[in-house]
Amino acid sequence: MSSQYFTFIFFILFFLFHFHSFESFPLTTSSRWIINDSGDRVKLACINWPGHLHVMIPEGLNKKPMKDIVNDIYNVMGFNCVRLTWATYMYTRYSNVTVSESLDRWNLSVVKEGVAKNNPEVLEMSVVEAQNVVVDEIGKGKMMVVLDNHVSLPEWCCGENDGNGFFGDEFFDPQEWVMGLVAVARRYNGNPSVVAMSIRNELRGPRQNMTTWYDYMQQGGAAIHHANPNILVIFSGLSYDTNLGFLKTQPITNNLDNKLVFESHWYSFGQPYDNWIHQTNEYCANVTKLFMDQSGFLLLHDSENRFPVFLSEFGLDQRGGNEMENRYFVCLLATVAEIDIDWGLWQLPGSYMLREGRVDTEDVYGMYDFMWDKVRNSTMVDRLRFIQTKIQNVNDGQCNQTSYVLYHPLSGQCVEASHLLLMTDCQHASHWTHERDGGLIQQTSTTHCLTTVKQGMAPVMSHQDDCSTPESFWNVVSSSKHHLASKDSEGNNLCLEVDPFTLEIVTNKCLCLDDDLRDVLKCDDNPQSQWLKLIPINKIDQ
Ligand SMILES: *[C@@H]1O[C@H](CO)[C@@H](O)[C@H](O)[C@H]1NC(C)=O
Ligand SMILES: *[C@@H]1O[C@H](CO)[C@@H](O)[C@H](O)[C@H]1NC(C)=O
Ligand SMILES: *[C@@H]1O[C@H](CO)[C@@H](O)[C@H](O)[C@H]1NC(C)=O
Ligand SMILES: *[C@@H]1O[C@H](CO)[C@@H](O)[C@H](O)[C@H]1NC(C)=O
Ligand SMILES: *[C@@H]1O[C@H](CO)[C@@H](O)[C@H](O)[C@H]1NC(C)=O
Ligand SMILES: *[C@@H]1O[C@H](CO)[C@@H](O)[C@H](O)[C@H]1NC(C)=O
Ligand SMILES: *[C@@H]1O[C@H](CO)[C@@H](O)[C@H](O)[C@H]1NC(C)=O
């Protein structure tokens, strides 16, 4: 009796401890949405936390206690999920190696001192056990974990010919890969922190082949689903996870009992600097179209073949020193908000224990600074806040999608109409209706409309009677579709603009657009101060 009683108490405590945070476990898919058992949408807003390099433990355990890292990810940075990367060999060859042995093997004595200081309990654990305690810690921190098979041989990823790129490459034996996937799926079966596994990162290289892709991806996916039917299974495309376009002609028919999700990456690597700088509007339009054609189409596809797409990597030098990357990032934010896709930013670490031969090496794509002490750039946290929220609920018809926020991706803020127009965080911003291009932008539940006064001045909210002149009619212009233009009383085109420093809203001459509001061929301004976008919204949480 009393033992039953204690079992009961234990069970209750276990539930309170473990489950109240997991409104999310288990997850399934419904069309393009990821949902929980009540049918509510669960949005993945993840940070990538690499654990697939030589030492085979999550980075940073030498810099900070894992509990504090987890606390920062959730409470300071605002993510609800971690994409934790791992290497196949960690499970198939080195699962009994201890953290201590692994550090010694690479002569990482200083790093080892750091681990001994910050996370001493992991030193004598095997690398697999160490991963497991980090996973549990993330769960206790109320976040979800996506386990991502990143490479086979533990090392920095991804090179064209690094032997980790495609089935049959030097280190990429398909059978061993499946064994590793099954081992992970089994270990975390029943662990509510782990909501998904992505089965291989950035397939690439000269061996890429669609036939092989279909064979092995379905084999790997089925093996995971069999070993752990609760978790989502995530398939990546070809060419470094940028191309799923082949699914248009040859769709995957087995959706693993509504557990199948696709993933995609979107970076600016290798893109022409001049196009980004001098043709920002048109180049943004081009890369956005490419993303939608090759991956995003799965969200909008005919209804049978719609799937969730997880934008599992994107990122930039967070110091803001690379202007091409800065423009790319703002371009990407506009689309991520508009389609309200699930996503994961690359990446958490401010430093790596050992990467490409360098010990304790800095990474400026990291949310953390080098010491894992503070966030590298708090502006980043502000800019991510809107896309970290659920913007849209499960809804496919979009029939009643009449409400918008007016979003400025450069600052990550939205417009609020009180007696003045102000920029504010998007959760507290005004909602608007805009029934057609060229029509009014009205604040919902009012009859007030947004109206241009003159160049260099703030627009105003007009009363209904004053909403019938061209100053109140707004068109989406430029090939980027990111500018909103109306006319002043003399018939000149003006665009909405937000001063990036003072956050004052004005209307001004449209940047980088000609008199017909088409993109000019070469422009020396940055038009992104004028990127204001109506983002459909039917849900903002938090
Ligand atoms: C699903 O998510 C909603 C919203 O977050 C939450 O209220 C609900 O309890 C969750 N349902 C389950 C079964 O976890
Ligand atoms: C790890 O140790 C266990 C128990 O001794 C053994 O069964 C297993 O084969 C070992 N795994 C590896 C990868 O060496
Ligand atoms: C570690 O140090 C030993 C002794 O100095 C050396 O023989 C070995 O090559 C080193 N290993 C690595 C991975 O650097
Ligand atoms: C892909 O692999 C299959 C089977 O190995 C082979 O028949 C086919 O020719 C390959 N296709 C390409 C485009 O390499
Ligand atoms: C955008 O794509 C079009 C069509 O492919 C091309 O003609 C144009 O040069 C591209 N623009 C830029 C800025 O790269
Ligand atoms: C943070 O990022 C912004 C935007 O890119 C940049 O202007 C700023 O200089 C960065 N600040 C730091 C401290 O790196
Ligand atoms: C749209 O709204 C109307 C009226 O509020 C409602 O009757 C209808 O069911 C809604 N349609 C959808 C698809 O939600």
Automatic annotation (TrEMBL):
Keywords from the UniProt entry: Glycosidase, Hydrolase, Signal
Signal peptide: 1-24
BP-aspect Gene Ontology terms: polysaccharide catabolic process
GO molecular function, one term: hydrolase activity, hydrolyzing O-glycosyl compounds
Keyword presence, Translocase: no
SUPFAM superfamilies found in the cross-reference section: (Trans)glycosidases, Ricin B-like lectins
Domain spans labelled Glycoside hydrolase family: 70-348
InterPro entries linked to this entry: GH (IPR017853), Glyco_hydro_5 (IPR001547), Ricin_B-like_lectins (IPR035992)
PANTHER family: CELLULASE FAMILY PROTEIN (AFU_ORTHOLOGUE AFUA_5G14560) (PTHR31263), GLYCOSIDE HYDROLASE FAMILY 5 DOMAIN-CONTAINING PROTEIN (PTHR31263:SF68)
Similarity annotation: Belongs to the glycosyl hydrolase 5 (cellulase A) family.
Name of the protein in its database record: Glycoside hydrolase family 5 domain-containing protein
Species assigned in the record: Tagetes erecta
